[in-house]
Amino acid sequence: MESSHHFSMLVFLLAVLFSLSCATLPHEDFLHCLSHSSNGSSPISNVIFKPQNSSFSSILESTIRNLRFSASDTPKPLVIVTPSTTSHVQATIRCSRTHGLQIRTRSGGHDFEGLSYVSRVPFIIIDLVNFGSIDVDVENRVAWVQSGAVLGQLYYRIAEKSRTLAFPAGTCHTVGTGGYFSGGGYGLLFRKYGLAADNIIDAQLIDVNGRILDRKSMGEELFWAIRGGGGGSFGIVLSWKLRLVSVPETVTAFTISKTIQENAIQLIHRWQYIGHELPDGVYSSVTLNTVNGTVMASFSSLFLGGSDELVSLMQERFPELGLVKQDCIEMSWIDSIRHFGQIQNQPLEILLDRNFKTSLTSPYYKAKSDYVKKPIPEMGLRGLWSMLSEEEAESAVVGFFAYGGIMAEIPETANPFPHRAGNLYKILYNVGWQEDENVNSERYIQWIRRVYDYMGSFVSKSPREAYINYRDLDIGTNNEDGNTSYAEASIWGRKYFKNNFNRLMRVKTMIDPQNFFRQEQTIPPLISSRNKRAH
Ligand SMILES: Cc1cc2nc3c(=O)[nH]c(=O)nc-3n(C[C@H](O)[C@H](O)[C@H](O)COP(=O)(O)OP(=O)(O)OC[C@H]3O[C@@H](n4cnc5c(N)ncnc54)[C@H](O)[C@@H]3O)c2cc1C
Ligand SMILES: *[C@@H]1O[C@H](CO)[C@@H](O)[C@H](O)[C@H]1NC(C)=O
Ligand SMILES: *[C@@H]1O[C@H](CO)[C@@H](O)[C@H](O)[C@H]1NC(C)=O
Ligand SMILES: *[C@@H]1O[C@H](CO)[C@@H](O)[C@H](O)[C@H]1NC(C)=O
Ligand SMILES: *[C@@H]1O[C@H](CO)[C@@H](O)[C@H](O)[C@H]1NC(C)=O
Predict the structure, then answer these.
(1) What is the extent of the structural domain holding 447?
(2) Which of 154, 398, 423, 468 qualifies as a cystine partner to 230, CB 3.0-4.6 A?
């Protein structure tokens, strides 16, 4: 008995070894396919990283921005491709399709749920780190930027050529243009100039068939969809043409922090009536967080002008805040990016560093969003404040960002981003924690879900709106195998896109009817065999 047991064990082990060494796994066929698409001038073998390669982990981790998705049990890609030519991207799409592998495209890696580098089905990553060129044309006030360039690099290249040109985008300089533009993209200038996506005038996209399309050849429907419909649904955007905007040589920033004893609740309550009505040259936000064990509300602004003008404006509109000139800092527009990015003490060249680890978020975090259409009563704000005093909220931030200005004038259908007129402000909830607290991660996630439940009665309803760039898988997801029904997808889809969701599905049906490009929250095609359950 003993020996026959050993014998069968041996056979079993041999069988395992044999299957490991001899069976062709899908990604081996894939690699074989890729190696055959190479051409002499730019061999694709130089940009393929397998797990055995000593650089694999460092490339994978280089832009993981949320360590929740860097655990040993987080699914890893079979291969990472860092294309350096368009033909590398085309070959990777073709071979992935042929061999049944999913692609996750990564630009800056800031997705709140890690969707650009994690998938539960076998997948590869196309990392656009080598697509980072930026070409600024001051005379025509336009720029071409490739998707792997980050916002800081774009700002730096603009500022290098002009002190009075800018682009309306976010303050965290390591955010990738690829994902950020795809989801709309707001920042310090959005009340005056709209979202980043509102200022995109052309783009280059590779579709599921490997075709290279620009605005003209893709047509206005697809061009509409890629400016706010979220990354990952329509193809791989390689570059964007931007319309630059004017800024004065001097801009002014302030931040005033208040405790509950300093009437923070009353001031926030009042701000809800004032923020969205401010002139469009003022960016205005309130952030709530814990500083040295005390919850504080910080009122911040960036003003496109000098401090005297800003002080008199705020004294007229919001005298309760008590802004005085000493609170104000005048600076150039490029320095306002460093100021709000909390890197004001770093050299300007820090903006070029796409791997810089920002202190704007905790190493581990979970985030959610809301839109507010009616002022929240003081009682409601008090409840939120007391949740911020709880232990789990030590590294939590809740931000209110005033809407209004041009955001209320751009029609809801101008691009897929629908949160325009009627919004007083948007809320970002973020709860963070450190490595040694990660064993208790569930506590923090439960905390933010409780806050979200609590806020439900004060925020937008039917749908409860959310911002796609603040990705939140709690609000609903597609099936992993791509057979999501319209009814399932529209649960999360209507929150992000309202009625634009239907139009997005029509575009998806046109450009990728087989739903090759898919993730947990990508637009499903309307009519496909995979989608039968919808009918
Ligand atoms: C610290 C921090 C600060 C932030 N600040 C702001 C802010 O001020 N304003 C704001 O609006 N948002 C902000 N965000 C959210 C940010 O806009 C989104 O996370 C955005 O998707 C990040 O883009 P990325 O290229 O870095 O992300 P990635 O993780 O690379 O991509 C995000 C999504 O887009 C897809 N994708 C990426 N590249 C492409 C491409 N080239 N073509 C097609 N699909 C693509 C990915 O597959 C994924 O689904 C912030 C996020 C963080 C972490
Ligand atoms: C890793 O992969 C790169 C790109 O294919 C290659 O140039 C390099 O030699 C590889 N390194 C190792 C140690 O295998
Ligand atoms: C080979 O690569 C170059 C550079 O990307 C490209 O221009 C060319 O079209 C490619 N040729 C083929 C046959 O793929
Ligand atoms: C928090 O505490 C530290 C150390 O005691 C102190 O240096 C810092 O100024 C405090 N911050 C605030 C905002 O009070
Ligand atoms: C489709 O989705 C359901 C879950 O809703 C799943 O049970 C089923 O196996 C999926 N796959 C196919 C190919 O239908």
Answers:
(1) 251-330+358-470
(2) 468
